[in-house]
């Protein structure tokens, strides 16, 4: 199973240059049954990333391009009157699929955003009293441009909570960018990617991730970090217990990727900025001073106490 | 001779040297603090060294040392066999009492046996430290330097003469350093040597040391090249310039023999008697009249006077009016052959059972002793009636009486050897005073203003051809009651005022107050001496020249012109006895009266503060050095400790945590928030290995995984030992 994960990463790397970390993190979210929010300026390869991942899994891939005039029904689906059967028939929208790319999610109206996000959380679609369970795996990768840009509807902080990880793409290094240019005309193109993992295998992997062991001392370490975010003077609102759960789930997936059947504090430390980063609300004055949630989390991690013994009730 | 026995013998020799160096530590401590039983303490050191030599299991070793200490304390302080029921009782009681004192921060309440225990523990630690220095560090330099410093400091600041001790220490220490250097060389080059080789290698150094020592010993030594800094230091620290004679240290208390005064003494707070009185009193016991230039003697037999209980005593001292009579109840706690006399003594009262008891007053000293059927007895309970005399101011100021020639002859005696400058000083002091009383007052007050200081420590004893009073008045100016009172008597006599020297007890400390009367506790520390001068028309009047003491003398200010509002005004001329300063009331007991050796073993530790200051400094500097160099020695100590325990028999977790501890003391501190993995990487990068990561991976599995897999202990052992050796080496 382990090499399946390696295969996915390898596959993605065929088209994405120098973005191994993003690929890994996306797979962490996929394995932990969470969703990912990719954030960065246009043109750094967000969409490409998602497509590459989707193509690597032989799953039902859907893409929703969000625009300001997109309606919830365009996402969830509609009931249409069928003159033959004399009945309304439910036509599921693009949300019903295995891997969904929600492109430029902050370009659509809050109404449509919330329709998407609610389905993400519950993995169901409800139209006119009819509830449709979306089959597993259900994995949403949303992309957004940073909110400083015009013509966007920033996602409310509460909505951001639905995403397991928020990842910044970042610009490629000079060397990588040259490589990108070189590959523009090379043989490896998106269309050539073939699936390397079946749906069943993916579901098995997700099951295994759920069984990755988290020792109580490591759990309490997660809680230690979560609680610490609530006691920082620059922070208006710290993370919720849901965030602690998210961090644990993500750590399990990350441990699995390292071929380990238990979580270490190292996993927790690595993932904390990606899991907690978008769930912390800074005070305005801190934001004006240019303090980032990342800095605050690093500070918390540097002050944390690593458990170096088995958990003992005290 | 095999390797092991060679090492044992070598170590035994080192220990022998250490034993003698430790002895050099002990000698000055014993000497300066007056502690006894040095041979037993040396025995303890020897036993400890032998135990250390044979690496006796620590439980057994602790047992032996513990039992020895218990035996010593019980034997010395309780005079009981430690392992008998009462011995255990004694030790347990003492321990509980001291633990209680410790918990309550009552440092003064800590008893001598407990201090002895702490002293032994200190020695114990010192021996452990030297053991470490020899076997692990293989370097004894710090120890030697400290020893030299200790002895040199004591030699400089105290009476201890360390000239030969320094030579002995240097000889032993240099030999030790040389042989340890050889040991280090051998150890590092990892070779084995045999006795003949060893001797061949060590002989040159020892020969060199001996030659240097011998040459140094016989070479002429230059005189000090710079002035002795001690007088400056001493004056800066307020130790005065007292030349201290080897007169020995006496213990305070009431004694008989005053023929040689001077010298230091130590406090003794044994309670002598309890007095229930209306006001604080001086308690007179006897007087002396012949000054010998070294001390006091009696002039001869003036016949004894029998006094019956209840009888009005005819006394040389004036008595106050009958209506002012008061009664004091005395309860002796300590057998003495005298009864105490308050000023204005009238009569003694006894219980029924003593109806046939008599008192005998010595005509010469005025000491009153109780007798029963012609035998001296100790009277433990009695009442004494007295009425304090009041001296009329106008009478004091108007001397008309011609003093009886007999009194003059007896109380104006002075030795022929009395230096003229004493007489000149006396004349100077009273230059503008007309009446004897004013003159006596001037002399009494002289000591308070002219640079005199009260002290009981480092008090000089006059040399063979030196006068006790002269030395005090002109040279030392530091002393206690005997110095002040004797000097005043001599000064008074030299200007023609009859005077005598009085011994007794000062008022003591109030321990109970029940309205009209108070109970005062008079201890050996209250033993005191003062002055009585014969003032014409008035008789004997008491004076108190000693700084810090006050004895009230009731003066009746009956001058008609000076007191227009009141006809008569009676006040105490001096303030009431000062409670604070009287804590210092002491006078030495010249002959050992029932000297309590056992209780006293450590009593003198409170003296000689300099010694303790030096000891404290030494301990502090050892601690400081150890702390500063802990990165170098602490890992070795831990390493040695850990290596001794078998890795295979210790749980892997424990071993790993020990390794972490060891790395930490070595200075590789795991930062806060640093995971074991990244720490392991750091360590491996430093030592250029992969062992730490290997161990850490295994340990992580042990603590974070659900079921720790079977650990390949053999593999881990290799990594663990490799790292431990890296850290130590």
TrEMBL record, chain A:
<feature type="domain" description="ChlI/MoxR AAA lid">
    <location>
        <begin position="227"/>
        <end position="300"/>
    </location>
</feature>
<dbReference type="GO" id="GO:0005524">
    <property type="term" value="F:ATP binding"/>
</dbReference>
<dbReference type="InterPro" id="IPR041628">
    <property type="entry name" value="ChlI/MoxR_AAA_lid"/>
</dbReference>
<dbReference type="InterPro" id="IPR011703">
    <property type="entry name" value="ATPase_AAA-3"/>
</dbReference>
<keyword id="KW-0067">ATP-binding</keyword>
<dbReference type="Pfam" id="PF07726">
    <property type="entry name" value="AAA_3"/>
</dbReference>
<dbReference type="Pfam" id="PF17863">
    <property type="entry name" value="AAA_lid_2"/>
</dbReference>
<dbReference type="GO" id="GO:0016887">
    <property type="term" value="F:ATP hydrolysis activity"/>
</dbReference>
<dbReference type="InterPro" id="IPR050764">
    <property type="entry name" value="CbbQ/NirQ/NorQ/GpvN"/>
</dbReference>
<keyword id="KW-0547">Nucleotide-binding</keyword>
<comment type="similarity">
    <text>Belongs to the MoxR family.</text>
</comment>
<protein>
    <submittedName>
        <fullName>MoxR family ATPase</fullName>
    </submittedName>
</protein>
<dbReference type="InterPro" id="IPR027417">
    <property type="entry name" value="P-loop_NTPase"/>
</dbReference>
<feature type="domain" description="ATPase AAA-3">
    <location>
        <begin position="35"/>
        <end position="165"/>
    </location>
</feature>
TrEMBL record, chain B:
<dbReference type="InterPro" id="IPR002931">
    <property type="entry name" value="Transglutaminase-like"/>
</dbReference>
<dbReference type="Pfam" id="PF01841">
    <property type="entry name" value="Transglut_core"/>
</dbReference>
<feature type="compositionally biased region" description="Acidic residues">
    <location>
        <begin position="563"/>
        <end position="572"/>
    </location>
</feature>
<feature type="transmembrane region" description="Helical">
    <location>
        <begin position="68"/>
        <end position="92"/>
    </location>
</feature>
<dbReference type="Pfam" id="PF11992">
    <property type="entry name" value="TgpA_N"/>
</dbReference>
<feature type="compositionally biased region" description="Basic and acidic residues">
    <location>
        <begin position="573"/>
        <end position="588"/>
    </location>
</feature>
<feature type="transmembrane region" description="Helical">
    <location>
        <begin position="36"/>
        <end position="56"/>
    </location>
</feature>
<keyword id="KW-1133">Transmembrane helix</keyword>
<feature type="transmembrane region" description="Helical">
    <location>
        <begin position="198"/>
        <end position="219"/>
    </location>
</feature>
<dbReference type="InterPro" id="IPR052901">
    <property type="entry name" value="Bact_TGase-like"/>
</dbReference>
<feature type="transmembrane region" description="Helical">
    <location>
        <begin position="610"/>
        <end position="627"/>
    </location>
</feature>
<protein>
    <submittedName>
        <fullName>Transglutaminase</fullName>
    </submittedName>
</protein>
<keyword id="KW-0812">Transmembrane</keyword>
<feature type="transmembrane region" description="Helical">
    <location>
        <begin position="164"/>
        <end position="186"/>
    </location>
</feature>
<feature type="transmembrane region" description="Helical">
    <location>
        <begin position="112"/>
        <end position="133"/>
    </location>
</feature>
<dbReference type="InterPro" id="IPR021878">
    <property type="entry name" value="TgpA_N"/>
</dbReference>
<dbReference type="InterPro" id="IPR038765">
    <property type="entry name" value="Papain-like_cys_pep_sf"/>
</dbReference>
<feature type="region of interest" description="Disordered">
    <location>
        <begin position="562"/>
        <end position="593"/>
    </location>
</feature>
<keyword id="KW-0472">Membrane</keyword>
<feature type="transmembrane region" description="Helical">
    <location>
        <begin position="12"/>
        <end position="30"/>
    </location>
</feature>
<feature type="domain" description="Transglutaminase-like">
    <location>
        <begin position="473"/>
        <end position="547"/>
    </location>
</feature>
<feature type="transmembrane region" description="Helical">
    <location>
        <begin position="140"/>
        <end position="158"/>
    </location>
</feature>
